[in-house]
Amino acid sequence: MPPVREEEDIREFPSLGPLEAQVIQVFVDGGKVLGLPRSIGEIYGLLFISPEPLSLDDLVERLGISKGSASQGLRALKTLGAVREIQLEGSRRCHYQADTELKRLVGGFIREQVSPHLESGQTKVARLNEIAGNETDPEMRVFFQSRVQQLEYWVGRARIVLPLLQKVLGE
């Protein structure tokens, strides 16, 4: 059974057609799973379904979001490698286009979002090992140490798998 949507999850886009609105919702939902702000999913979704590159002002107008939110979202998407800037002949404005190559999207997400957390996770797990070893109750110490070892194993596996995944995707 699909999850029930809360009213605030569904947003109307009066200036967009039903297909565009549904595509945007797909990317909003996907971004939510990855912990990304709604505006990033909206911006990428509109750029993905747009046959022409769009300017910042186009995004603001068509999505009904603030200029600041659009600017921040574009900056984040550029950092992830999900959008690229396009200069249109005869226009002084910068336009944007979705990059639809899966390897760049996944590679950018791993590089910008997952890898930094893995690095900090390794440091945190080392600290957890120290704390678990200081537990005064012997039973709890054994339990905590086993859980910390499990975390160490997961972090170690992720450090092996992520570079392989990036290599497979051609990043």
Automatic annotation (TrEMBL):
Record domain HTH marR-type: where: 35-93
Record-linked SUPFAM superfamilies: Winged helix' DNA-binding domain
Alphabetically ordered keywords of this record: DNA-binding, Transcription, Transcription regulation
Pfam families xref list: MarR_2 (PF12802)
Domain of life: Bacteria
Keyword Transcription applies: yes
UniProt keyword Nucleotide-binding, yes or no: no
Homology family: Belongs to the GbsR family.
Protein name in the entry: HTH-type transcriptional regulator
Organism: Luteolibacter flavescens
Lineage of origin: Bacteria, Pseudomonadati, Verrucomicrobiota, Verrucomicrobiia, Verrucomicrobiales
